[in-house]
Protein backbone atom coordinates (compact mmCIF):
# COMPACT_ATOMS: atom_id res chain seq x y z
CA UNK A 1 0.00 0.00 0.00
CA UNK A 2 1.53 3.33 -1.03
CA UNK A 3 1.62 6.43 1.13
CA UNK A 4 -1.24 8.09 -0.72
CA UNK A 5 -3.63 5.20 -0.08
CA UNK A 6 -2.53 4.99 3.54
CA UNK A 7 -3.20 8.68 4.06
CA UNK A 8 -6.62 8.28 2.44
CA UNK A 9 -7.49 5.44 4.81
CA UNK A 10 -6.34 7.50 7.80
CA UNK A 11 -8.43 10.41 6.58
CA UNK A 12 -11.51 8.21 6.17
CA UNK A 13 -10.95 6.71 9.63
CA UNK A 14 -10.70 10.17 11.20
CA UNK A 15 -13.84 11.28 9.32
CA UNK A 16 -15.77 8.24 10.56
CA UNK A 17 -14.67 8.87 14.15
CA UNK A 18 -15.63 12.56 13.88
CA UNK A 19 -19.03 11.62 12.41
CA UNK A 20 -19.55 9.05 15.17
CA UNK A 21 -18.78 11.63 17.87
CA UNK A 22 -21.08 14.17 16.18
CA UNK A 23 -23.97 11.67 16.07
CA UNK A 24 -23.28 10.64 19.67
CA UNK A 25 -23.47 14.22 20.84
CA UNK A 26 -26.62 15.00 18.86
CA UNK A 27 -28.42 11.95 20.22
CA UNK A 28 -27.33 12.87 23.75
CA UNK A 29 -28.55 16.45 23.27
CA UNK A 30 -31.89 15.25 21.89
CA UNK A 31 -32.51 12.77 24.70
CA UNK A 32 -31.47 14.94 27.62
CA UNK A 33 -31.88 18.60 26.67
CA UNK A 34 -34.69 18.65 24.15
CA UNK A 35 -36.88 15.71 25.16
CA UNK A 36 -35.74 15.09 28.73
CA UNK A 37 -35.83 11.35 28.20
CA UNK A 38 -33.40 10.67 30.99
CA UNK A 39 -34.14 6.95 31.30
CA UNK A 40 -33.66 6.51 27.57
CA UNK A 41 -30.40 8.44 27.81
CA UNK A 42 -29.17 6.18 30.61
CA UNK A 43 -29.97 3.07 28.59
CA UNK A 44 -28.29 4.58 25.54
CA UNK A 45 -25.08 5.36 27.44
CA UNK A 46 -25.14 1.95 29.15
CA UNK A 47 -25.18 0.19 25.78
CA UNK A 48 -22.34 2.36 24.48
CA UNK A 49 -20.31 1.65 27.63
CA UNK A 50 -20.39 -2.05 26.78
CA UNK A 51 -18.34 -1.22 23.68
CA UNK A 52 -16.40 1.72 25.12
CA UNK A 53 -15.88 0.86 28.82
CA UNK A 54 -12.93 3.23 29.19
CA UNK A 55 -14.81 6.33 28.05
CA UNK A 56 -14.83 8.97 30.78
CA UNK A 57 -17.16 11.10 28.66
CA UNK A 58 -19.87 8.44 28.54
CA UNK A 59 -19.77 8.01 32.31
CA UNK A 60 -19.92 11.79 32.67
CA UNK A 61 -22.98 12.05 30.44
CA UNK A 62 -24.70 9.17 32.22
CA UNK A 63 -23.96 10.78 35.59
CA UNK A 64 -25.75 13.91 34.38
CA UNK A 65 -28.78 11.85 33.35
CA UNK A 66 -28.88 10.26 36.82
CA UNK A 67 -28.56 13.75 38.31
CA UNK A 68 -31.58 14.96 36.32
CA UNK A 69 -33.53 12.07 37.87
CA UNK A 70 -32.29 13.14 41.32
CA UNK A 71 -30.69 9.73 41.82
CA UNK A 72 -27.73 11.20 43.65
CA UNK A 73 -26.05 7.96 44.70
CA UNK A 74 -25.85 6.70 41.12
CA UNK A 75 -24.71 10.13 39.99
CA UNK A 76 -21.79 9.92 42.40
CA UNK A 77 -21.00 6.38 41.30
CA UNK A 78 -20.72 7.39 37.65
CA UNK A 79 -18.79 10.55 38.55
CA UNK A 80 -16.25 8.40 40.38
CA UNK A 81 -15.90 6.15 37.33
CA UNK A 82 -15.44 9.14 35.03
CA UNK A 83 -12.83 10.69 37.34
CA UNK A 84 -10.95 7.37 37.54
CA UNK A 85 -10.56 7.50 33.76
CA UNK A 86 -9.97 11.25 33.46
CA UNK A 87 -9.47 13.37 36.58
CA UNK A 88 -9.28 16.66 34.64
CA UNK A 89 -12.98 17.01 33.73
CA UNK A 90 -14.22 20.01 35.68
CA UNK A 91 -17.86 19.43 34.78
CA UNK A 92 -17.80 15.97 36.41
CA UNK A 93 -16.66 17.45 39.72
CA UNK A 94 -19.48 19.96 39.39
CA UNK A 95 -22.03 17.17 38.88
CA UNK A 96 -20.49 15.54 41.94
CA UNK A 97 -20.96 18.73 43.96
CA UNK A 98 -24.60 18.98 42.89
CA UNK A 99 -25.24 15.38 43.95
CA UNK A 100 -23.60 15.94 47.34
CA UNK A 101 -25.82 19.00 47.82
CA UNK A 102 -28.85 16.82 47.07
CA UNK A 103 -27.69 14.50 49.87
CA UNK A 104 -27.03 17.47 52.21
CA UNK A 105 -23.34 16.56 52.36
CA UNK A 106 -22.21 20.15 52.32
CA UNK A 107 -18.53 19.67 53.07
CA UNK A 108 -18.15 17.07 50.31
CA UNK A 109 -20.06 19.37 47.96
CA UNK A 110 -17.71 22.23 48.82
CA UNK A 111 -14.55 20.24 47.99
CA UNK A 112 -16.03 18.88 44.75
CA UNK A 113 -17.01 22.39 43.62
CA UNK A 114 -13.60 23.70 44.68
CA UNK A 115 -11.88 21.08 42.50
CA UNK A 116 -14.13 21.99 39.55
CA UNK A 117 -13.17 25.65 39.92
CA UNK A 118 -9.47 24.77 40.10
CA UNK A 119 -9.81 22.96 36.77
CA UNK A 120 -12.00 25.60 35.13
CA UNK A 121 -12.16 29.00 36.80
CA UNK A 122 -14.96 30.24 34.53
CA UNK A 123 -17.34 27.35 35.25
CA UNK A 124 -19.94 29.53 36.97
CA UNK A 125 -22.18 26.61 37.89
CA UNK A 126 -19.35 25.39 40.13
CA UNK A 127 -19.20 28.78 41.88
CA UNK A 128 -22.95 28.51 42.45
CA UNK A 129 -22.56 25.03 43.92
CA UNK A 130 -19.74 26.21 46.13
CA UNK A 131 -21.91 29.09 47.32
CA UNK A 132 -24.74 26.69 48.19
CA UNK A 133 -22.32 24.40 50.00
CA UNK A 134 -20.93 27.32 52.00
CA UNK A 135 -24.48 28.34 52.86
CA UNK A 136 -25.13 24.82 54.13
CA UNK A 137 -21.94 25.09 56.19
CA UNK A 138 -23.26 28.40 57.59
CA UNK A 139 -20.40 30.43 56.11
CA UNK A 140 -22.84 32.98 54.77
CA UNK A 141 -20.30 35.74 54.11
CA UNK A 142 -18.20 33.53 51.82
CA UNK A 143 -21.33 32.21 50.14
CA UNK A 144 -22.43 35.76 49.32
CA UNK A 145 -19.07 36.45 47.63
CA UNK A 146 -19.55 33.44 45.35
CA UNK A 147 -23.13 34.44 44.59
CA UNK A 148 -21.84 37.94 43.75
CA UNK A 149 -19.44 36.47 41.19
CA UNK A 150 -22.16 34.35 39.63
CA UNK A 151 -24.66 37.21 39.44
CA UNK A 152 -22.06 39.40 37.69
CA UNK A 153 -21.72 36.74 35.00
CA UNK A 154 -25.34 35.55 34.87
CA UNK A 155 -27.57 38.42 36.03
CA UNK A 156 -30.67 36.80 34.54
CA UNK A 157 -30.60 33.68 36.72
CA UNK A 158 -33.30 33.93 39.38
CA UNK A 159 -31.91 31.17 41.61
CA UNK A 160 -28.71 33.10 42.25
CA UNK A 161 -30.62 36.02 43.77
CA UNK A 162 -32.66 33.56 45.81
CA UNK A 163 -29.53 31.89 47.19
CA UNK A 164 -27.90 35.20 48.09
CA UNK A 165 -31.13 36.44 49.69
CA UNK A 166 -31.21 33.34 51.91
CA UNK A 167 -27.73 34.21 53.15
CA UNK A 168 -28.77 37.79 53.89
CA UNK A 169 -31.83 36.46 55.71
CA UNK A 170 -29.64 34.27 57.95
CA UNK A 171 -27.34 37.23 58.62
CA UNK A 172 -30.45 39.24 59.57
CA UNK A 173 -29.74 41.75 56.81
CA UNK A 174 -33.42 41.89 56.02
CA UNK A 175 -33.46 44.90 53.67
CA UNK A 176 -30.93 43.25 51.37
CA UNK A 177 -32.82 39.98 51.57
CA UNK A 178 -36.06 41.70 50.53
CA UNK A 179 -34.26 43.30 47.59
CA UNK A 180 -32.77 40.03 46.34
CA UNK A 181 -35.99 38.07 46.77
CA UNK A 182 -37.66 40.83 44.75
CA UNK A 183 -35.07 40.40 41.97
CA UNK A 184 -35.72 36.67 41.97
CA UNK A 185 -39.48 37.23 41.69
CA UNK A 186 -39.04 39.71 38.83
CA UNK A 187 -37.20 37.01 36.88
CA UNK A 188 -39.58 34.23 37.94
CA UNK A 189 -43.05 35.36 38.93
CA UNK A 190 -43.94 31.85 40.12
CA UNK A 191 -41.05 31.57 42.60
CA UNK A 192 -43.17 30.52 45.56
CA UNK A 193 -40.05 29.81 47.64
CA UNK A 194 -38.93 33.43 47.21
CA UNK A 195 -42.34 34.71 48.33
CA UNK A 196 -42.21 32.36 51.32
CA UNK A 197 -38.79 33.49 52.50
CA UNK A 198 -39.39 37.14 51.70
CA UNK A 199 -42.28 36.98 54.14
CA UNK A 200 -39.75 36.36 56.91
CA UNK A 201 -37.55 39.21 55.67
CA UNK A 202 -40.51 41.62 55.71
CA UNK A 203 -41.42 40.50 59.23
CA UNK A 204 -37.79 41.12 60.19
CA UNK A 205 -38.18 44.80 59.29
CA UNK A 206 -41.59 44.93 61.03
CA UNK A 207 -43.51 45.12 57.76
CA UNK A 208 -46.13 42.61 58.86
CA UNK A 209 -48.62 43.57 56.16
CA UNK A 210 -46.27 42.72 53.29
CA UNK A 211 -44.95 39.69 55.15
CA UNK A 212 -48.41 38.20 55.57
CA UNK A 213 -49.27 39.02 51.94
CA UNK A 214 -46.16 37.16 50.76
CA UNK A 215 -46.90 34.03 52.77
CA UNK A 216 -50.43 34.05 51.37
CA UNK A 217 -48.95 34.36 47.87
CA UNK A 218 -46.70 31.35 48.46
CA UNK A 219 -49.79 29.36 49.51
CA UNK A 220 -51.54 30.47 46.31
CA UNK A 221 -48.61 29.52 44.04
CA UNK A 222 -47.89 26.22 45.80
CA UNK A 223 -51.21 25.16 47.33
CA UNK A 224 -50.12 21.58 47.99
CA UNK A 225 -47.08 22.62 50.06
CA UNK A 226 -47.55 22.06 53.79
CA UNK A 227 -44.74 24.39 54.84
CA UNK A 228 -46.55 27.50 53.51
CA UNK A 229 -49.74 26.70 55.36
CA UNK A 230 -47.79 25.96 58.54
CA UNK A 231 -46.12 29.35 58.36
CA UNK A 232 -49.37 31.12 57.49
CA UNK A 233 -51.09 29.53 60.50
CA UNK A 234 -48.20 30.58 62.76
CA UNK A 235 -48.33 34.18 61.50
CA UNK A 236 -52.07 34.25 62.12
CA UNK A 237 -51.59 32.99 65.67
CA UNK A 238 -49.22 35.92 66.24
CA UNK A 239 -51.64 38.42 64.72
CA UNK A 240 -54.60 37.01 66.64
CA UNK A 241 -53.37 34.71 69.46
CA UNK A 242 -56.51 32.70 70.09
CA UNK A 243 -56.94 28.93 69.86
CA UNK A 244 -60.53 28.38 68.77
CA UNK A 245 -61.97 24.95 67.92
CA UNK A 246 -62.37 26.14 64.31
CA UNK A 247 -58.70 27.04 64.06
CA UNK A 248 -57.59 23.71 65.46
CA UNK A 249 -59.95 21.90 63.06
CA UNK A 250 -58.63 23.87 60.08
CA UNK A 251 -55.06 23.13 61.12
CA UNK A 252 -55.82 19.41 61.46
CA UNK A 253 -57.11 19.41 57.87
CA UNK A 254 -53.61 20.28 56.59
CA UNK A 255 -52.53 16.66 57.09
CA UNK A 256 -53.45 15.91 53.47
CA UNK A 257 -50.81 18.28 52.07
CA UNK A 258 -47.48 17.11 50.70
CA UNK A 259 -44.30 17.18 52.76
CA UNK A 260 -41.09 16.53 50.78
CA UNK A 261 -39.09 16.81 54.00
CA UNK A 262 -40.03 14.43 56.80
CA UNK A 263 -39.03 17.06 59.39
CA UNK A 264 -41.92 19.28 58.26
CA UNK A 265 -44.35 16.47 58.94
CA UNK A 266 -43.01 16.13 62.48
CA UNK A 267 -43.26 19.92 62.95
CA UNK A 268 -46.87 19.83 61.80
CA UNK A 269 -47.73 16.95 64.12
CA UNK A 270 -46.01 18.76 66.97
CA UNK A 271 -47.93 22.00 66.42
CA UNK A 272 -51.20 20.12 66.15
CA UNK A 273 -50.50 18.20 69.38
CA UNK A 274 -49.63 21.49 71.12
CA UNK A 275 -52.88 23.08 69.98
CA UNK A 276 -54.75 20.10 71.40
CA UNK A 277 -52.97 20.41 74.74
CA UNK A 278 -50.93 17.23 74.24
CA UNK A 279 -47.64 18.83 75.29
CA UNK A 280 -45.58 15.68 75.90
CA UNK A 281 -46.55 14.39 72.46
CA UNK A 282 -45.76 17.79 70.94
CA UNK A 283 -42.32 17.82 72.55
CA UNK A 284 -41.57 14.37 71.14
CA UNK A 285 -42.59 15.41 67.62
CA UNK A 286 -40.44 18.56 67.66
CA UNK A 287 -37.52 16.47 68.87
CA UNK A 288 -38.00 14.08 65.94
CA UNK A 289 -38.12 17.03 63.56
CA UNK A 290 -34.81 18.36 64.89
CA UNK A 291 -33.20 14.92 64.60
CA UNK A 292 -34.40 14.34 61.03
CA UNK A 293 -33.56 17.78 59.65
CA UNK A 294 -30.28 18.55 57.87
CA UNK A 295 -30.54 22.12 59.16
CA UNK A 296 -30.98 23.65 62.59
CA UNK A 297 -34.57 24.89 62.32
CA UNK A 298 -35.06 27.54 64.96
CA UNK A 299 -38.84 27.14 64.81
CA UNK A 300 -38.65 23.58 66.18
CA UNK A 301 -36.55 24.79 69.11
CA UNK A 302 -39.05 27.57 69.78
CA UNK A 303 -42.00 25.19 69.75
CA UNK A 304 -40.07 22.77 71.95
CA UNK A 305 -39.73 25.70 74.35
CA UNK A 306 -43.47 26.32 74.11
CA UNK A 307 -44.12 22.68 74.99
CA UNK A 308 -41.68 22.72 77.90
CA UNK A 309 -43.17 25.93 79.25
CA UNK A 310 -46.67 24.47 79.06
CA UNK A 311 -45.35 21.55 81.14
CA UNK A 312 -43.86 23.95 83.70
CA UNK A 313 -40.27 23.06 82.79
CA UNK A 314 -39.24 26.70 82.57
CA UNK A 315 -35.46 26.41 82.68
CA UNK A 316 -35.43 23.95 79.76
CA UNK A 317 -37.99 26.10 77.96
CA UNK A 318 -35.83 29.18 78.35
CA UNK A 319 -32.79 27.42 76.90
CA UNK A 320 -34.76 26.20 73.88
CA UNK A 321 -36.30 29.60 73.13
CA UNK A 322 -33.03 31.45 73.66
CA UNK A 323 -31.35 29.02 71.27
CA UNK A 324 -34.04 29.75 68.68
CA UNK A 325 -33.53 33.51 69.08
CA UNK A 326 -29.76 33.11 68.71
CA UNK A 327 -30.39 31.27 65.44
CA UNK A 328 -32.46 33.96 63.74
CA UNK A 329 -35.96 33.39 65.14
CA UNK A 330 -37.92 36.55 64.40
CA UNK A 331 -39.00 38.40 67.59
CA UNK A 332 -42.45 38.85 66.02
CA UNK A 333 -43.03 35.10 66.41
CA UNK A 334 -42.59 35.35 70.18
CA UNK A 335 -46.15 36.62 70.27
CA UNK A 336 -47.17 32.95 70.10
CA UNK A 337 -46.16 32.74 73.78
CA UNK A 338 -49.38 34.51 74.71
CA UNK A 339 -51.16 31.25 73.87
CA UNK A 340 -49.75 29.81 77.09
CA UNK A 341 -52.21 29.68 79.95
CA UNK A 342 -52.38 32.37 82.62
CA UNK A 343 -50.41 30.28 85.10
CA UNK A 344 -47.33 30.69 82.86
CA UNK A 345 -47.59 34.49 82.63
CA UNK A 346 -44.40 35.12 84.60
CA UNK A 347 -42.44 33.08 82.08
CA UNK A 348 -44.10 34.82 79.11
CA UNK A 349 -43.26 38.27 80.53
CA UNK A 350 -39.55 37.51 80.14
CA UNK A 351 -39.95 37.69 76.37
CA UNK A 352 -42.86 40.06 75.74
From TrEMBL:
Superkingdom per UniProt = Bacteria
Keywords in alphabetical order, please.
Membrane, Repeat, TPR repeat, Transmembrane, Transmembrane helix
Spans through the membrane: 6-24, 44-61
Report the InterPro entries cross-referenced here: TPR-like_helical_dom_sf, TPR_rpt, Ycf3
Q: Which organism is it from?
A: Dictyobacter halimunensis
- The name on file for this protein is Tetratricopeptide repeat protein
**TPR repeat windows:** 158-191
